[in-house]
Design brief:
The model has no long low-confidence stretch (mean pLDDT 95). With 434 residues, this protein is of the alpha/beta class. The chain folds into two domains: 206 residues, 3-Layer(aba) Sandwich (Rossmann fold); 190 residues, 3-Layer(aba) Sandwich (Rossmann fold). Helix 1 runs parallel beside helix 7, helix 8 packs parallel to helix 11 and helix 11 packs across helix 12. The strands form two sheets. The protein has an eight-stranded mixed beta sheet, sandwiched between helices. Strands 10-9-11-12-13 form a five-stranded parallel beta sheet, with helices on one face.
């Protein structure tokens, strides 16, 4: 089976099925088509399927022209999981959020695997890319494949290969970001290396699916802990009257032993606020208390409250209360120059302001209308930023520092600016750093 699978990959006759057509699945689909494969995309969202079929995009940094070209050269999309039986490789790119108790929610992964289980067949490879705790692939996916009558490593293959997308980063693409692959068996690993090696410039094999799962967690825990550190230092520097951004810039001149991380109003995206707690949860099974991870989560999670305190104080000093104040949030995506709203700290801040009685508006050139979200509801659309409109707000909060904002215009025409990103380096009477 392995040689037959590798031959299909080599001669481009393999059909690739990608389940979940979001920020990970859609770019990966386009890359496989670009490399000469036929791709079937699966998603439960019929609107995504409709748009792909029409050659339209729904992710800002992926142009419609790229989707249209892909549909002309082998990309199709469907909501029908029965078509899984026709593909040779199945790649799962579905969400892995936390529940309200900050415990792993594998329902998207497990529901998907159970939905495709009746259509699995010999000769197929199943790859999980969704971030999860070490052991998920072996403990959850393997039994479900074996229940379908498949012998893993003999007549079907199972791998874990964590996604490494960085939306909006022009320096890296799906093709150029190295891909880690771990297999359930040696044959599974070789099948996974063949699949990803055909479309990714560098593939990095590891000894097991558990090692691959832990690799992804380490990457994101590294970032979460360091961001937590610099966010805590921001609070200390604020008390001391020191500009943390000046300190970071100075420290970054050291050519070794230091990596610059920058503070903000919190952390967002699907990875950094969530993934570390997958390991925290799993570590309890082994009697380990992950103190660094939990402390970083506590610090990062408190940053919207820190910003809120700065807003309250700044308005009080101007003889205003938060209640009935008109507040404009500049930027609501989780990082600059993208439209991704997942776990955005800007939205948490908007909710805190609304709960305090503020009249909240936002401006974001990448998010024209506030999207439907599972946990957050605002019936708002992006507002213009100009000389006239800015003067109508009691407070403007710079939450996400998009390049398309005119920062000089904002500072010159606003009554009060709260800068959570260190965009303004020179003091001004209407400027407060948060």
């Amino acid at each position: 089976m392995l040689n037959a699978f590798k031959q299909k990959i080599a001669d481009r006759s393999a059909i690739v099925g990608i389940v979940g057509l979001g920020y990970v699945g859609l770019p990966l689909s386009l890359r496989f088509v670009e490399a000469g494969y036929r791709v079937v995309g699966f998603d439960i969202d019929s609107e995504k399927v409709r748009k792909i079929s029409a050659g339209e995009t729904y992710i800002e940094h992926i142009p419609s022209a790229a989707v249209k070209d892909a549909t002309a050269h082998g990309l199709s999309a469907t909501t029908q999981f029965s078509e899984i039986s026709m593909v040779d490789a199945i790649i799962l790119c579905v969400p892995t959020p936390l529940n309200k108790y900050r415990e792993p929610d594998l329902s998207f992964v497990l529901n998907t695997v159970e939905a495709i289980q009746p259509y699995l067949r010999k000769g197929q490879l199943l790859s999980l890319e969704s971030t999860t705790y070490p052991g998920t692939t072996e403990e959850e996916l393997r039994p479900r494949m074996e229940a379908a009558g498949l012998a893993i490593g003999q007549d079907a293959f199972l791998v874990f290969s964590p996604e490494r997308e960085d939306p909006g980063n022009p320096n890296f693409s799906t093709r150029t970001i190295p891909k880690v692959v771990g297999g359930q068996t040696e044959a599974c690993l070789h099948a996974g290396l063949a699949l990803y090696g055909a479309v990714i410039d560098k593939v990095v094999p590891v000894s097991s699916t558990q090692a691959a799962e832990m690799t992804k967690l380490l990457e994101n825990i590294h970032r979460a802990v360091n961001i937590g550190l610099v966010n805590e230092l921001k609070i200390v520097c604020d008390k001391m009257g020191i500009d943390i951004h000046e300190v970071i810039d100075a420290a970054a001149t050291k050519p070794f032993g230091f990596v610059a991380y920058h503070p903000g109003p919190g952390i967002g995206g699907h990875c950094i606020p969530i993934d570390p707690f997958y390991l925290t949860w799993k570590a309890r099974e082994y009697g380990v208390h992950t103190r660094f991870i939990e402390l970083a989560g506590e610090v990062n999670g408190s940053m919207p409250d820190f910003v809120m305190g700065k807003i309250v104080q700044a308005l009080n000093e101007r003889c205003k209360s938060v209640r009935k104040s008109r507040v404009l949030i500049l930027g609501i995506s989780y990082k600059k120059n993208i439209d991704d709203m997942r776990e955005s700290p800007s939205v948490q801040l908007m909710e805190k302001l609304r709960e305090a009685g503020a009249i909240v508006s936002y401006s974001d050139p990448h998010v024209p209308v506030f999207p439907k979200m599972r946990e957050h509801r605002f019936d708002l659309s992006s507002q213009p930023v100009d000389q006239v409109s800015l003067k109508n707000y009691d407070c403007v909060v710079l939450a996400t520092d998009h390049d398309r904002f005119d920062y000089e215009l904002v500072l010159r025409n606003s009554q009060l600016v709260i800068d959570t990103r260190g965009k303004y380096r020179n003091p001004a009477p209407n400027l407060v750093r948060a």
